[in-house]
Amino acid sequence: MDLRQLRYFVAVAEELHFGRAAKRLSISQPPLSFNIRQLETSLGMELLRRTTREVALTEAGKVIYREALKLLALARDAEEQARRAAKGESGAVHIGFVGSSFLTRLASDVRAYAVARPEVEVVLYELNSYEQIDALQRGQIDIGIVHPRVLPAGVASRVLHREDFVCLLPATHPLAGLEAIDAQQLQHDDFVLFPRDFSPGYYDKILALCLQAGFTPHIRHKVRNMLTIATLVSHEFGVSLVPASLGKVQLPNLACRPLTHASTPSDLRGIWRHDERQPAVLAMLEQLAAPQA
């Protein structure tokens, strides 16, 4: 018994006429009759009672007809689900991200993908860059959005977003009245920053900016979250250099000023397994990497 035989049988069962059933199926009558006979032989029972005047379902035929409708519906549903999965329109995509990345347009990109593909389950995990690499290798996430760092073999990456660094400082700070700040003017300030082992790439870029300005920053307070940096700065614990997107954060007594010489941009990179083949995941990567107008 195969699906083609079941489709042929259903047509005959509904038409109760071999000629009309053959026309409905766009085939000739002999192969239709042959396949019905094959179905009956494989089942070991008569499904249709044939006379010169009529075709009727046997009791067994009535049962097979009902069940055949269910099987054919399941087959159509499976085919449709497979088609959607092959086009990346179903399945699941698990995405890791560093918290500050969703202050950029990447959050809108992920949301746009989720709206366009409602049958794809999009699951988000806020993790630091190191945690994302580990989760990716363990198969716990499909895509990561990280600060640049050395990646292990088997992990592919590309730049998803690039922006300048800016200065966060208390609104009461003497430099807050300036339209732009030279990093050298911060040499006597305490800094609030990530520890290097938490985000080496990000830390090294901040250090490079300061060294280019002629000083080594005094990093007094070390935290794990960008919003914590903004909060501590607003409470006058120090200043910080952060990606421009963090300037969107509005807190009492918090000011954001561009740098006059910010030659080192801040990057966010997408990471994924180099052998990734899931259509839904590849479609998300395409969405995130699309050039912005």
UniProtKB/TrEMBL annotation:
UniProt keyword terms in alphabetical order: DNA-binding, Transcription, Transcription regulation
InterPro entries: LysR_HTH_N, LysR_subst-bd, WH-like_DNA-bd_sf, WH_DNA-bd_sf
Stored PROSITE patterns: HTH_LYSR
Signal sequence extent: none
UniProt GO MF annotations: DNA binding; DNA-binding transcription factor activity
Record domain HTH lysR-type: where: 1-58
Hydrolase among keywords: no
Matching SUPFAM superfamilies: Periplasmic binding protein-like II, Winged helix' DNA-binding domain
Family: Belongs to the LysR transcriptional regulatory family.
UniProt name for this protein: LysR family transcriptional regulator
Organism: Achromobacter pestifer
Upper lineage: Bacteria, Pseudomonadati, Pseudomonadota, Betaproteobacteria, Burkholderiales
